[in-house]
Design a protein that fits this description.
The protein is of the alpha/beta class. The chain has 18 helices and 13 strands. Belongs to the bacterial solute-binding protein 1 family.
């Protein structure tokens, strides 16, 4: 080939983003968390992806949740060899990893190819840090109301409540004849967070965008209104005021047959039915009601985001894997296989046939995440929100106790004080 023609061809390849060697066969290593996807899903995805991308082999490795934080931090510093190119992480963990360095900024890909404007906010917002999108939403899960259809029928309630006030009125009707209208533990702070968000408040706020300076805000008027609603609802049952929903496990309490409602992920129904098979076919679901009909209440959205290490030697291959996992085809497959909420509200019809998941998807459209501070885990480690809730439910002054809890949150989020 003449030299001029060879140089011309090289420039054309470079202009198209296809540099020499990019079409060579390579392996993209993906870390998925245990329980996030079934082996059958992984097998289907791998086979289809490798068929569509002949130059890429997938190496999907399942990781344990225990100790994963330390393992991810190490992986973000590694290069080559067994280092992962794509990592699944909890949606609220992204800010911590970005802050410590080592994540690839996916903002351009998010805007151009991944439809970021349609993502569920509870997954998208935690993946965003200092103006960049580092975590790509993969799947979501959130709380709904699980109810006993027989107890609703006995109380003359023919349809689920559509507003918070209807919910209170119905729960009051159900809280009779020895039954609990609702079993709501005193320290179920995720549920409280939803009520606070509905009122326009938050658990903590950044004083100025991207400043890293966070302040607890449980003492705001909006947050106090959320706590006041929690008090009203919690009083319509016999949930412990000094424990969370796992002590005792609320699914076991509900299985006793005299509890009309709990707030839980739909998967709790499986544990309820295992403990009391007589309740099979008698459980219903509805989204946590909001202040107005037609809009479910705010909920904490848990789930996973996908990240790419900055040191990955194949950003292009990693992005192609994420584009597939976060795209319509495999979002639909994963949601149906695992009973998850897809990463976009417009994909919710994929799970319309499953009553619990459909209720979860409706709530997820108004989902939120915990404050996007890299230090938030330190708040949860010695959770002052739980103590605050117990103090108020046992007679403490809400405003005074909220100010104390806000100060503790502020100290936990204070990076300067480290």
């Amino acid at each position: 080939m003449p030299l001029a023609l060879a140089l011309s061809s090289t420039l054309m390849l470079a202009g198209c983003g296809l540099l020499p060697g990019e079409d060579e066969h390579r392996t993209v290593t993906v870390w998925m968390m245990q329980g996030s996807a079934s082996p059958e899903f992984v097998e289907r995805f791998t086979e289809d992806f490798e068929k569509e991308h002949e130059a890429i082999d997938l190496d999907i490795r399942v990781q344990e949740w225990t100790g994963i934080g330390t393992k991810v931090k190490k992986a973000l510093k590694d290069t080559g060899g067994d280092a992962p190119d794509v990592i699944e992480v909890g949606n609220t963990q992204v800010a911590q990893y970005v802050d410590e360095g080592g994540l690839y900024n996916l903002t351009l890909e998010s805007a151009r190819d991944l439809g970021m404007d349609d993502w569920l906010p509870g997954l998208a917002e935690p993946g965003r840090y200092n103006g960049g999108q580092y975590g790509i939403p993969w799947y979501a899960a959130n709380r709904v109301v699980i109810y006993n259809k027989d107890l609703f029928a006995e109380a003359g309630i023919t349809r689920p409540p559509r507003t918070r006030e209807e919910w209170i009125a119905d729960t009051r009707k159900l809280n009779t004849r020895g039954n609990q209208g609702i079993y709501l533990a005193g320290q179920d702070w995720y549920t409280l967070a939803g009520f606070i968000w509905d009122e326009g408040g938050d658990l903590a706020k950044e004083t100025k965008e991207s400043s890293g300076d966070w302040r607890g805000t449980l003492h705001s008027a909006a947050a106090l209104r959320g706590m006041a609603f929690y008090q009203r609802l919690q009083a319509l049952g016999r949930g412990p005021r000094d424990a969370d929903e796992e002590h005792p496990a609320q699914a076991g309490v509900f299985a006793g047959g005299d509890v009309a409602q709990i707030v839980a992920v739909p998967g709790a129904a499986r544990a309820i039915e295992e403990k009391n098979p007589e309740l099979k076919g008698k459980l219903g679901y509805f989204p946590i009601p909001g202040k107005r009909a037609g809009k479910p209440g705010a909920v904490f959205t848990g789930g996973s985001d996908l990240i790419v290490p900055e040191r990955s030697d194949d950003h292009r291959g990693a992005v192609e894997v994420i584009e597939a996992l976060a795209g319509k085809k495999w979002q639909t497959d994963l949601a149906r296989t695992m009973n998850y909420v897809p990463n976009k509200a417009k994909l919710a019809p994929a799970v319309a046939g499953e009553a619990g998941v459909a209720a979860m998807a409706a709530g997820a459209a108004n989902g939120r995440a915990t404050p996007n501070s890299p230090r938030w885990a330190s708040v949860e480690a010695d959770n002052p929100i739980k103590d605050y809730m117990t103090e108020v439910l046992t007679g403490g002054d809400p405003a005074t106790r909220a100010r104390e809890a806000s100060r503790k949150i502020t100290r936990a989020l204070d990076i300067e004080g480290l």
